Amino acid sequence: MTRRAWVRLDNASNIFLAARSDVDPKVFRMSAEMDHEVDGELLQQALDATFDRYPLYHAVLRKGLFWYYLQDSDLRPQVQAEVRPTCAAIYRENRRELLFRVMRHRRRIVLEVFHALSDGTGALAFLRELVIAYARARTAAGPAPAGGADPASAASPPPAVDPTSRHGRGLFVDPFARYFRRERRPAPAASAAEASAFVRAATPAGLPEGMPAQEPAASPRRRMVGRGPRRHETHVHRVPGTRTPDGRTRAVELTVPVAELLATRPEGVGTTMYLTALLFEAVRRSAGDLGRARTLAASVPVNLRQFFPSTSSRNFFTALRVEHTYGEGLDDLGAIGRQLEADFRPQIEIGALEERLRRLMGLERMPVLRIIPRPLKDLVLGLVNRVNNRALTVAVSNMGPVRLPEDIADQVRRVSFQVSAVRPQICAISYGGWLSITFTSPFLETGHVREFARLLTAQGIAVSVAATRVTEAELAEGAA
Amino acid sequence: MRRCPDCGVAVEGAWSRCPLCGRTVMGPMRPDPFPAVPLRFSRRRIYRILLLASLVVILASFGAQMLFDRGHAGIGLVRSVWLGLSAMWLVVLMAVRARRDIAKGTATVVVLICGICAYWDYLVGWDGWSLTYAVPIVCGCSILALVIAVPALRIEAGDHVLYSGTMVLLGLVPIVFTALGWVADPIPSVCCGALAVIVLVMQERDRVSDVLHELGKRLHI
C-alpha cells in the first residue's frame, strides 16, 4: 500500500488545537494587494506550482491516541472567491481537508493558514512564492519559477525564510522525525556553535503561549501573590466588549507610510515596542479610567529563525510578554516605549531564548506528559491557555518588512497580515514604504483602534482605514 | 477617498460612517478591500446539544429497562417499541457521525448492534438468540460489506486496515461462542467464522505490516 508520510504534531502546535474556539479558530491571514484585479486562472496556476514545492502544505491533520499528527495527502487546493468572514475556521474534526486556503477578492490574493500547520514566517514564504509566480506569469516578463529559482531573493534581507533554500522540500517528513532521531545520535562532528547545535535539535518547535514554564517570573499574578513591598498590587486590564453577532473576527486595517511613523518614534525604542506603547496608550484612552487594573500586558511573538537559523515552515516562534503599569512613573509614549524596550531586549538575548527553549523541550520530552491521552492533553493545554490569557491585555505581532524581486515589485501595492483573536491584537507588516497594521478582536467595539489612529493623525501621519463589516446594519450598507 | 473629519483618517470602502467613531464620512468612494460577507450562524452548537440530549435519553431508556421484570412476559409491546426506537436512534446517530469514515463507522455500528442485541436478549430472559443468530449474522454481513466497500470506494489501506482487522477478529468470536456451547444452532457462527478465516487468509495476512504501521502511528508516544 502507499504508506503516507506523517509527523507528530509538537506541543507548540498542539496548543492551537487545544485553544481554538468558535470565536478564535486559530487561523491567520496574509494578503497581497496587487495593482490590478486578480486573475483567478493565473492564480490557480501559480498556486499549483507553489503547492508542489511545499510538501508541508499537503498535510491533513489526524488524531492518534496520544498526539495529533500531520499526514501527507493527495488533495489539491483550489483558489476560492472570498465568501467567508476573515480568518474563518479551517480545521474541522474528522475531515480530511488541507489546513490552508487561498482566496482572491478584487485586487487581493489572500492566504489563510491554520496555525497548527505553520507560523507567520512560514506562511509568508509561501505567499511570497505564490505572488511571485502569479505576477511573473501575468506579465510574462520572465518564466514562472518552476524550480523555485528566485534570483532576487538571495540578495533580499531576511524578513522571511529564503524561498530559494530547501524550504519546504522534504520538510514534511523531516522536522520532527529528524529532531527525535538527533536526540539519540551523537552530535554531528562538524557542528557549529553549541547554540546552533541545540537549536538544530530543537528546530521544529515554536513555543506555545500557554505553557506554564514560559511564564515570566515577574508576571503580575505572581506579584499579587508575592505582595512586594515596593510595588502596588495591580490587576491586568482586559479590554471588555460585545461579541460580534456570528462570532466572526472584527478586523480593522490601518495603512500608514513607514517613514512618517518611524519619524515619530522615540529614540531608543524599536518599532515593535513603539507599536506596543501606542496600543497601550490607545487602550488606556479608550478605557477611560483603568481603575485598579492599571497594568497593561502584551504577548509579543518573536520569530526564532532570526536567532537560530532554520528553514522549517513549522511553528518556530516564542511568545514573550511585556507590560506597563500606569501611575507608577512617567506615562508618556516615549517613557512607556523605553520601559517596554528595556523589558523586551533582555528577553530576546540568545541565552535567554535558549533557556526558554530548553525548558520547553524538557516539558515536551517528559515521559509522563507524553503518555497522557490526547483528549486530556487538549483539556489541560486549553485550561493553561485560558489561565494565561487572563494575564494579557493585547497581543502585538510584527512581521517586519517584506521584499519582493524588482521585476514584480511594482505590481504589489500592499501586504497585510491578521490573526483571529480572542483578545484585541495587532499585526504589522510593511511593504513598499507602507506599514499595514491590522487590528483584530472578537468584539464589535473599535474604541482602541480609533484612539490608535488619532494618536497617529495627531502627529501628522496619514492614515487609511479599511474594516470588515460585522453587524447586520454594516452589511446592509455594504451590500447597497 | 472618503475622510472622517474627527479621526482625520481616509476610509476605504462604501462606509457612510467612520468605522472607528461613527461620524459621517465625506468624499469619493474607493473600493473596499474586504467583501461584505453575510452573517452566518453555525448550527454546530445546536447539533452538539441535540446529540448529547439524544444520548442521555437513549441511555436512560436502556437503563430504565432494568427496573422492569425480565422475561418474555414482562417485555410487552410498548417496551419492545420503546427499545426498538432507542436502538434505532442510537445506531442512526452513530452511523451519521461516522459517515465520513466508512470502515470506522461500520465497526462502530457492528459493536453497537451486537451489544444492543445481547442486552435485549438478556432482558427477555436470555434465550441465546443474540449469540446464536444476531451477532454472527451482523458480523458476517459487515465483513462482506467491507470486502465490497473497500475496493468499490477505493478506501486507502491506511484508512481501513485497523478497522477491517478488528472486524475480522470480531467475526472469529462466534466460533468461541460455539466452542463454549453458548449457541443453540452452530450454523450461523460457523458460517461467520469461516468467512472471517477466508478473509483473514486471503487479505489480512498481507496486511500485518500495514496494521503494525498504522498502530505505530496512532499509538505513537
Automatic annotation (TrEMBL), chain A:
The family database entries (Gene3D superfamilies) matched by this protein are listed as:
Chloramphenicol acetyltransferase-like domain
* Region of interest called Disordered, as start-end residue ranges on this chain: 142-169, 205-247
Query: Sorted alphabetically, which InterPro entries does this protein's record hold?
Result: CAT-like_dom_sf
Compositional bias per record (Basic residues), positions renumbered to this chain: 220-240
Q: Where is the composition biased (Low complexity)?
A: 142-155
Provide the species name.
Brachybacterium phenoliresistens
Name under which the protein is recorded: Alcohol acetyltransferase
Automatic annotation (TrEMBL), chain B:
State the Pfam families in the record.
DUF6320
The record's section on InterPro entries has: DUF6320 (IPR046283)
Which parts of the chain span the membrane according to its record? Answer: 49-68, 74-95, 107-125, 131-153, 160-180
Q: Which domain of life is it from?
A: Bacteria
Look up keyword Membrane and say if it applies: yes
Keywords assigned: Membrane, Transmembrane, Transmembrane helix
Name of the protein this chain belongs to:
Zinc ribbon domain-containing protein
Organism of origin: Brachybacterium phenoliresistens
